[in-house]
Design a protein that fits this description.
mainly beta; Ribosomal Protein L9, domain 1; three-stranded antiparallel β-sheet; two-stranded antiparallel sheet; 8% helix
Length: 63
Amino acid sequence: MQKESLLKVKVIPNGPIAIEGKVEIMLPDGNTVEKEKPFLCRCGASNKKPYCDGTHVKIGFKG
């Protein structure tokens, strides 16, 4: 019997959400993309949404 893999999601203090594993992301335009270990923006200021581009450091995001 094959064990089901568990998706891991980590909220990085004052930073993005790190997802460990392969995920399918639906973009605002309805298209989907598959990503392995994406970092998702949590501060709302990334220029590459939904992905983190490090802007949280520049703006002093706390969360």
